[in-house]
Amino acid sequence: MTLALYDTMARAKRPFVPADPKRGIHIGRLLTSDTIVRLVRDKLALGERYGALAVDMETLAVAQVCREGGVRFLSVRVISDDVSSDLPPEVLSLVGPTGSTRFGAALGAIFRRPDSVRDMWHLRKAAHFAAGRLATFLDGIVTQLYNALH
Fold it and tell me: 140 is in which domain, residue-wise?
């Protein structure tokens, strides 16, 4: 497992976005990983060890390129699988190395454990909800960044 820790606001000009935990807005450190962190205990342990608010996989490559190039970096992430529950075990086989969905693995998972349909459906619903929240939030961030540059 490769891990990298980033203060998501340290290298970027900070837009005015106050933290508001009641509304789900947190500002702080992001831990990136090249593997899925599936279990609650692992998510909590990594958060405690590195002082990170979240662990993700998608930001790693962009963060590394920005660091190497000395480019300011801001990551805005939305979390669809928080520390309240484990990801279904099937998630490890459903996602290919490029992030694509492996449909054969999905069918195999359903065959082996029919309840996985319910788990995957809940994960899908959470992802769609999170995507909507992200779109709303980014609208404000993009406006602020545009105004700051012009």
Answer: 3-149
CA distance 143 to 24: 20
Q: Counting runs of H as helices and runs of E as strands, what totals does the chain give?
A: 5, 3
What domain count does the chain have?
Answer: 1
Least confident of 5-9, 75-79, 102-106: 5-9
User: What are the residue ranges of helices labelled H in 18-115?
Assistant: 40-50, 60-69, 91-94, 103-112
Is the Cβ–Cβ distance between 8 and 28 less than 8 Å?
A: yes
Question: Do residues 125 and 131 touch, judged by C-beta distance below 8 A?
Answer: no
Cα first-last separation, the chain: 41
Burial class (CB in 10 A: 0-12, 13-18, 19+), 108: middle
C-alpha dist (Å) from residue 44 to 2, 8, 91, 143: 17, 19, 19, 34
Task: Judge whether residue 9 has pLDDT over 50.
Answer: no
pTM of the model: 0.61
Quick count: other Cβ atoms within 10 Å of Cβ 127? 13
Residue with tokens 């054969």: 104
**Rounded-to-integer distance, Cα 53 and Cα 21, Å:** 11
